[in-house]
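2024-03-11 09:14:02 DEBUG pipeline.ingest accepted 1 chain
2024-03-11 09:14:02 DEBUG pipeline.ingest length=569
2024-03-11 09:14:03 DEBUG pipeline.predict start
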Amino acid sequence: MTIIGSKKSIETFPTDKAIEDAKDLRAEPGFGLSYVCSTHTSFPSQYLKMTKWKSNDDRLRAANLETLSDALGVINVNGEAQVKQLRHDIRKKILSGHSKRLGEEANQREEDAHENDPASYAQPFIDFINKNPTVYHAVEAAAKQLRSKGFTELSERDAWDSKLEKGGKYFRLQARKRGQHNRHAYRCLDCSLEAHLLPPYQGGYVQLGVAPYAGGLNGTWWDRDLGVAGRVLVRDAKTGKISTKLVNLDWPIARIPTLAPHFGQAANLDRANKETEMVPIIGLDHPTAASSAPSTTTNSSGGGPTTFTSTQPQRLVSHITNALSLSPSQILNWDLELYDTQPATLGGLDRDLIFAGRIDDKLCSFSALAALLASSPSSSPNSLRVVACFDNEEIGSLTRQGAHSNLLPDVLSRITSSLAGTAYTPDIQSQLYANSFLISADVSHALNPNFTSSYLPSHSPALNTGVAIQADPNGHTTTDAVSTAFLQRIAAKTSPPCVLQTFQIRNDSRSGGTVGPMLSSGMGMRAIDAGMPQLSMHSIRATTGRDDPGLGCAESIPYCMKRPNNITS
């Protein structure tokens, strides 16, 4: 038998029946094979090797099937039975590939539906809140997610010239604290308490000294179940190397108890002294147990008289060392925070609300990061897409990891220098800033139905509606008419178009500020302040809409994918 194959058609085949079978296969509904076989010189003429699989149908072409030589091997076609088996195997392969493609299409439809359905982001956001009680946990979770999506971590101590490539994906962490993983949104601990030295014992209770950060220790902290979490600096007992470990004691440990109203004026919580009357209790001082008090001469935990752990509540030290499988002497220091242990959850009759702590501003950080990960690297190959998450906005941002530092300008400068190479000049950096646009993403105020008179009638953002542009005539935000028109163009590019809301506070109220003005003025970059609305800002627990994490992401995706170029300034 002589087989002469072509990559376009069948020239000859051993029998008329085989030819008919081949024609039948080529006429398979929806597929139309352009060729079935070709020769392979290393095999005798009585064998047929399938070397290529090609279809004029786009769905099958996209299925990325293996070559038939891998699937079927070398097939003997001397007899009619073998030809029938060949036909059966090819048909099976066709149907298998078609099913695979249908599955891929279904998965893609599901992914597209996920990206287009704002409500689908609600549970991931709730999980993000519940799994990351402190900013240290949130940064580590974001870094882990970025690594899983192919992002490469860069160290600020290394040279970047040989590491950055056009089209690459990278992230950098600043001080492993409230770091940066590329676009602007900040995570402010506006309601946290940082644990420190133990105060004197009072009435047989073990108490924990705390220092309020920004709006912490306000009235919403009374009678809440508080857990302890944060980062611990650890020295390796063998190598002496210092590393950071995260800890989360997630059961109710601390509570700031109110005074019953029966005690009269002393029970006025609005006038409570934060130093002496809002000290959390973390247990009882059991006389029969080893003393929990810190000691300057001895330490029941084994940390020694001069170690950090000797100054801390010993039962707390014990729980932390057990959780991390450490000895007390290995702990050099820690940054611990108290947080509300009540989990974030969907709420409302129709579960269209999210009740959670720490919404400000994990909400905008979550949406910004999700938008970056959802954007296509090839959608705008000549653009630089950046998400920067900062710390300490509530206390002025003038920290190493704050927006008032050189963090973002330094990162952008190093990227530009690396990609431009010897052609780099300060003029190129200035051009980069001039051709860029910054969304300063910070949560805004949703309309509180019990205090409608506190809002301007046309500046009352609603939940589950869309991003709220924040304006202020005194420079507390960076919004102006040009940047507003720009964001409106971005919103119009979404499908369906994003709804934009506006918020400006009344003249007889005090306006809050954002990091937008300091970033925009420092780099000369066009910018706007816009974010998702929430109720109960600066409370230990707040409320946002079920759709708002996804709506924030939907607003950002078009910007992350391709900048509109028909807005002039």
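2024-03-11 09:14:41 DEBUG pipeline.report Residues 117-189+358-561 form a domain with the Aminopeptidase fold (CATH 3.40.630.10).
2024-03-11 09:14:41 DEBUG pipeline.predict end
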